[in-house]
Design goal:
6-stranded mixed sheet
Length: 173
């Protein structure tokens, strides 16, 4: 006769595992926002807001002061410098988003690039200068995407190629 080992009846059941609850032990959420935006523009000693914008190889140095809505680019009016209506509309968008159109004078110096790059650089410069003038406008400008630098650049030409990716024409014979 074989005897089977039996477990003693005095053995206690396994201790209960703690139940897992989502969010248990986590600190309570704060209702106040502690986010402080980075202001990339600055104010000069005369109270003019300065912002620098870049796009492709174009650089725009923009100064904004309170006024009646005049815009001067490299010493020329906006309509003479940007002949295409689309470019003038894009430049006015950050001002329309913050309801500052016609309330500020803009003086800009543009260098490098072409019309599209200069337009994008000026939009970023205006947006940065507006945030320097009034930091409360930062949320409206960032929602509209005006404070985002477009980092796309032209791809460099590689050796053994005609352009960046274009190869020379292949001849079988």
């Amino acid at each position: 006769m074989t005897t089977e080992p039996t477990t003693p009846e005095t053995e206690s059941p396994a201790p209960e595992l703690p139940s897992l609850e989502i969010g248990a032990g986590a600190p309570a959420e704060q209702t106040e926002s502690t986010y402080v935006p980075v202001i990339r523009g600055k104010l000069d000693r005369f109270g003019n807001a300065i912002g620098t914008g870049r796009r492709k190889t174009a650089v725009a140095r923009v100064r904004i002061k309170t006024g009646d809505g005049k815009t001067s680019i490299n010493g020329r009016p906006l309509e003479d410098y940007f002949r295409v209506e689309r470019d003038r509309h894009l430049i006015a968008q950050p001002l329309q988003a913050t309801e500052m159109l016609g309330k500020v004078d803009i003086w800009a110096r543009l260098e490098g690039g072409g019309p599209t790059g200069q337009t994008g650089a000026m939009v970023l410069g205006i947006a940065r200068a507006l945030t320097a003038l009034n930091p409360a406008l930062h949320s409206k400008l960032s929602e509209g995407g005006f404070l985002t630098r477009d980092g796309r650049m032209v791809e460099r030409k590689k050796y053994g190629r005609k352009k960046a990716r274009r190869s020379f024409q292949f001849s079988k014979r």
